[in-house]
Design brief:
- The structure holds 2 protein chains of 2 kinds.
- Chain A is an alpha+beta fold.
- Chain A contains 17 helices and 11 strands.
- Chain A has 2 domains: about 5-50 and about 335-490, no CATH class; about 55-325, no CATH class.
- In chain A, the strands form 3 sheets. A 4-stranded antiparallel β-sheet of chain A has the order 2-10-1-11. In chain A, strands 5, 6, 7 and 8 form a 4-stranded mixed β-sheet that branches. A 3-stranded mixed β-sheet of chain A has the order 3-4-9.
- In chain A, a hairpin with a 5-residue loop joins strand 7 and strand 8.
- In chain A, helix 1 packs across helix 14 and helix 4 crosses helix 10 (about 300-315).
- Chain A is elongated, with a radius of gyration of 34 Å.
- By secondary structure, chain B is α/β, with parallel strands linked by helices.
- Helix content of chain B is about 35%, strand content about 30%.
- Chain B is globular.
- In chain B, about 50% of the residues are buried.
- The chains are: A alpha+beta, B alpha/beta.
- The interface of A and B includes residues 5, 376 and 379 of A.
Amino acid sequence: MNYFRRALISITRKIPKTLILLLIVLILGNIMLSSLLIVQSVDGTKDAVLKELPPIVSLSFNFEKLNEMMMKGEDFGEIKWLTFDDLDNIAAACGSYIKSYDYAVTTGMQTTSLERAEREGSSYPGFGMPAFTFSGAAIPMFALLESGEAEIVSGRTFTEQELAEGRPVLIMSEQLAEQNNYVIGDTVTIENTLVTYTQAGEERILDTLVFDFDLIGIIAYKNLPVGESEQTSFFGIDTEWERVNTLITPNNFIRQYNEMWMEINREYYQELGMADFFPEEYNPLMGGTTSITYILNSSEDFESFIKRSQDVLNNEWYLFTSQEDNFQKVAQPLESMKNILNYAFYITLGSSIVVLALVLFAFIRDRKKEIGIYLALGERKSKIVLQLVLESLIIGIIGATLAVGTGVFIASMISDAMLPDQLTIEEEFNPMIPVVEDYLAKIDYSSVLQSFDIGLDIRSTVAFYIAIVITIILAQLIASTYILSFDPKKIMM
Amino acid sequence: MPILAVRNLSYHYQDGDYRRYVLRDINAEFEKGKFYAILGPSGSGKTTFLSLLGAMESIQEGIIEFEGTPYSNYDLNSIRRNLIGMVFQSYNLIDYMTAVENVLVAMSITQQKMPADCRAVAYNLLDYLGITKTKADRLVTKLSGGEQQRVAIARALATNVDVILADEPTGNVDESTEEEIIQIFKMLAHQHNKCVIVVTHSATVANEADVILTLRRGGFVTDE
């Protein structure tokens, strides 16, 4: 009858002790397992959601910081604007993470040559001539296409040559094309009137420029809003819809146009004696209205890429935002629950060791005579401890197996109780400039909740059993230190 | 050669700065085939002497030899495991095990060569001591005091040792059972050539012993 057989006899014949230990392990096991399951399910949800989305990181000006400083009346000194050298440095340092990157230099044109495509039930809220946003592209698969936010439904994208030369080629939304009866191959003539207003409030036309664009592509946006507009910008412009009225051209075309626009305005301001109003050199990235979109090779690189890029850029006025950040914002209740239960898991693990050690200590006291008999018969203390560890482990594994059956159910109950059905996110800071757009996917809470599924996989099961085994062994070893003080003579004689 | 020899054995309890000697310079020899009774008033150190012989605690002063080899050459556990069998007044059986399982526990702990079919040997041993197979399969708590003491003796014998030490083995049994236990010890000594050493208050036990050792003034007076 070796110690293993003795352990089995003890388990099967000392039923109250076995049941007490089983119950304790079952309760603690359920808490541990449900915490573990929820933590891993949140991670699983995050992985599943992010896996479905393109691995995009957006680099944009931190308008929120600027706004806060202005509100507090702080002196923010001279803003360090992003430069093309910065972009080159990031590309050189983090090239291994980057599949491609794009940025959009933007401008606006006021013209009567085009009719705006408004959302059903709304009208253009601006004054004067209708305004259109021009957004540039740096690469043929510009961010809008690469991110999957839009797709070309007719025609083609830009060629490298068109982009490099800044040719007047145009891609527009299907709504705008339909509104103006344009098809691929048409020439879109835009007569752009440069208007300013005198101090007396009178409109003054500075110049009129006429551009003939070749319409090379028509795109369809995937996630256009439906129904009545709710979200508006500073000017009452429907920001979600505004991209329909955005015309896409090569960045270099917009840069040339902006330089031209600055020259014309400079002359006017010179007349007014305010030539200093304009910077001497034109930096297309100045003003913070351009965000840089990095398409990474893998969503697993978010953290590494952002950390390294931040070091290279070293500019606190700019922020890197990834899909992961977006997920965390939307899945905030899940993340909070995960954090709480992560702590709960480790607290339960620690307290389980203490609780079990105390219970097992009480059992050893109760079995002092039995242990004295083993010692009197010449059994080694190590083998007695081994027998006790085996007993606890066998009961513990049975308890853990029962907990596996109930843990999923309890984890579902806990998560149901902790997660709100709907999420109200505090209204984000509105930069008031509708042209600033990143291509991070809009992750919504309900779809995150749909992806959140508590299930037991092999990884969780193995982790749980390991946690239980470690807990029981540690608790039993702690309790068994008491045996070291046992003197067979005192117990037996 | 005696199987056990005690040379200048002393044992004391430390009481502050004062040492209170329970045993002082004791010398004795014990042989196989004899049944020894150790008598003495309460607190005379009989149990301490037995616990030292049974390797239940370390020797402070002096030597105990097993077949000429000092105990200090052994690990105390291994003496209890392989050389000595002990029987206690309160039987000290594992209460959730059957009689035969209690015997098997000792057989599993010893490093002495055990037969292949330990269980059959344990049944035979118990049967030899008056515990039938039916009773051997009962939990020890279901047996009478006398039966439990027989199980304890069987456990002590199961490891095939030559020395049986017993601490007041008849202290908890009635007179007729006491007589039966005495007969078992005599049989073990005389028919099986064991060295049986019993610490007792009982005159009945002492009268049946081959050798009576009376503990007096820290030493033994031998009456043969």
